[in-house]
Predict the structure.
Amino acid sequence: MDIRRVGKPDGFPVVALHGIQGTNDSWTPLATALGDAFHFILPNLPGRGDAGYPASPQACSAEAFARLASAVVEQEIGSRPYMLAGWSMGVSVILELMTHLANGTARHPAPLAVMLMSGTAQLNEVSWFEASEDTALLDEIRQREIRLGLKRAANPQVVAWTWRALEPVSHLAHLAHVTMPALIVHGSADEDCPVAHAYRMGEGIRDATLHVIPGARHSVLTQNTQDVGNAMRAFITRITQHGAISQPPVNREEIHED
């Protein structure tokens, strides 16, 4: 596995998953900013960074990525408390993994908390790419890479395979499996996953904190690093100080940053 580790070795562990076109580089600014208290474990999924090329298009499904994420948790975390965090497609991988945990097919404990950033439970309702023909799709993928400002991007053909696998997917029913506290971070001006998707996830998760960043777009992880870091630090501090929360709060909390 191609895994980068950033931050305090004895800090609170965070396994963080990148987006469809990104690599673990996407998490580096946040991991560095929070490195005094957190230990970030940043895997690259197949076709990204120095990870191996996927054997086939079938290896690029949310199910396949969830199995890989589960293997990372098993290898890196063991029985320690930890957080699962995902940006964009990483949210979909986490929601897929929640089903493994609910069914008892994962060989590791559930996370103490999850962080779902700029994602959706309904990939079948977003249009990250419009093209249906392969050449046009690859061109669109390269243009989106530029728009998102990705310094190190995934292999375009792997992105195309991944999009074909994810495009019809809905994880709406999987939200019920998110039984731990969840921090949902989203930009109000997200052009790829409109903020309505964040509210929908918040409605389906029994213990959700919604943090909306006014004016922020899809790339909140790199463009709004300080806002995201402040929200994450406050959320994990609250969770770890009170232990795992077994009962949902009476009122759902929503935070807006000016």
User: Anything to note?
Assistant: Confidence is low (pLDDT under 50) at residues 244-258. The CA atoms of residues 190 and 217 lie 4 Å apart.
